[in-house]
Write a structure and sequence with these properties.
Oligomer: single chain
Helix content: 40-55%
Protein name: Dihydrofolate reductase
Order of helices and strands: EHEHEHEHH
InterPro entries: NAD(P)-bd_dom_sf (IPR036291), SDR_fam (IPR002347)
Number of domains: 1
Pfam family, one: adh_short
Shape: globular
Radius of gyration: 15 Å
CATH topology: Rossmann fold
CATH superfamily: NAD(P)-binding Rossmann-like Domain
Organism: Shigella dysenteriae 1617
Number of strands: 4
Structural class: alpha/beta
Strand content: 15-25%
Largest sheet: 4 strands, parallel
Strand order of the largest sheet: 3-2-1-4
Distance between the termini: 61 Å
Length: about 100
């Protein structure tokens, strides 16, 4: 019997900070990783070069969430874990004007 490839760990918000650190931790453990990111930072290229699957996603809309899910389903038949690390995925115009948005 051949050795089967382990299921990937999905990390949302994996382009920076703790999500990026988690992605590298699992990559160094030889664990397949799928990373979502909103903005393409240089660190994404490093993850791709190390074998991670990195998918740009906009979780501020239902359509964006569904498009991301479709991309994940195209690449794997299951997941080992989901680490939801993405911050508040508001539309960009809401982020720029957050005091107005939150205080309205």
């Amino acid at each position: 019997m051949g050795k089967t490839q382990p299921l990937p760990i999905l990390i949302t918000g994996g382009g920076r900070r703790i999500g990026l650190a988690l992605a590298w931790h699992f990559i160094n453990q030889k664990q397949p990783v799928i990373v979502s990111y909103r903005t393409h930072y240089p660190a994404i290229d490093g993850l791709i070069n190390a074998g991670a699957q990195c998918i740009q996603a906009d979780f501020s809309t239902n359509d964006g969430v569904m498009a991301f899910a479709d991309e994940v389903l195209k690449s794997t038949h299951g997941l080992r874990a989901i680490l939801h690390n993405a911050s508040a995925w508001m539309a960009e115009n809401r982020v720029r004007h957050w005091p107005t948005y939150w205080l309205a």
